[in-house]
Amino acid sequence: MAVAISAYFRQGDGKITLITDSRGNCAMSFDFSRLRRSDQIVGGGAIALFILMFFFKWFGVNVSGIANTYLHLAGISASADAWHTMSGIRWILLLTVIASVALVILVGSERKLELPVSLSVIVAGLGALATILVFYRVIISHPNSGESAKIGAYLGIVACAAIAYGGYLAMQDEGTSIADVRDQASHAVSSATASVSSSGEGSGSAASPASEAPTAPPAGGAPAPPAAAPPIPPPAAPPIPPSAAPPSSEE
User: Do residues 103 and 166 lie in contact, with contact meaning Cβ atoms separated by under 8 Å?
Assistant: First the structure.
């Protein structure tokens, strides 16, 4: 059955049709009533973080009034957003947004994604990591002495913390504890190790020489005849006794 992605269409019952089949029937819908409080916090934090990353200034350079006016007339900005100022962290922030949106879509559409670690744990971990990195970058570390943090950077910390908190609440809603997280992580690591080991053994067996291959049975399925026994050597001849001495001539 052909499936096509349709335009977002809000129905009267609060649902949004995401995917329709070839006949126009709804194959996948998103219902806002399915979202839990944790999912709403995660979705709101992800949307806020995405907007703050690209449309708000995070860092700027302190310049005097005349220099600032000159830069403004020249079309040069003394401040920049997170995407251009946080080159080492921006990919983690973007991955956090993507994972958060995926969690909200899966819950709203009643879909499940089979992963070694649950998606709520991934969202909570990425949110916590993003919060720590952004907090360190904004509050503690400044690469340039004349650089100052803007309002977007502080709001970015709040958005990352909201994603981490929402992910933690989602873990509680699913009944996932810290011990379960350790078990899932250890199981994922062991599965990855086993797959790597099996692939290495498979390549090693494929590269074995052909001489080590087992001998094919004879045609017709008949067993091979036993090997002939070696010939038995004849018994050794008895020793010949010495001949009698000749008679003496004096006799």
Answer: no
